[in-house]
Amino acid sequence: MTHRPILLTSFRPWKAHQAENSSEAMLSRLVHRLPHHVRWLQDLIVNFELAPVQVIAQVQQYRPKLVICCGMAEKRKHLTVERWGKGKTEKRATRLDLEALVTNTVDTHISEDAGSFVCNSLYYRLLAHVQTEQPQTYGLFVHVPKLSAENWPVIEFDFLRLVQRLDELL
Q: Could you please report the per-residue DSSP string of 92-154?
């Protein structure tokens, strides 16, 4: 059986004090445990214009069934799935049932605010693209907190569970 790919994305660090971006660190630890049809676009530049262009180009090329963009949320304590990407005058929601999705996790939360930085901009532009140009593709943004020995087992379990569940459903 041929699977349409799942596209995962992650960012590089953007502040001098960051040794790593938790989104990239998480995926680098998990990529070998993900389905073989997952493609990983890593090391995205933290830039309002370049990040969406890079991701949408990959979406157009690979026509994935799902795009999961991952970004770092330094001040959050949990893995969070974002409901909305907000533009200047409108917002777009993922078409995924987030409530059903997080019921299969240990400590993943739904967020109603993707922030006002590059993560939100990327998510909004991704959702706008897939909802108008590629409706067979679903989009999701996952914010990853700073990783530690204490939170890693739950983050690892929850993220793998999210991908597995979405892969089964779509």
A: EE-SS-HHHHHTTSSSEEEES---SSHHHHHHHHHHHHHHHT-TT-EEEEEEEPPP-TTTHHH
pTM, full prediction: 0.96
Per-residue pLDDT of the chain (170 residues; tens, 9 = 90+): 567 999 999 998 866 666 789 999 999 999 999 999 999 999 999 999 999 999 999 999 999 999 999 999 989 999 999 999 999 999 999 999 999 999 989 999 999 999 989 999 999 999 999 999 999 999 999 999 999 999 999 999 999 999 999 999 99
| Contact between 7 and 67 (Cβ < 8 Å) | yes
| Residue given tokens 């799935």 in the structure block | 81
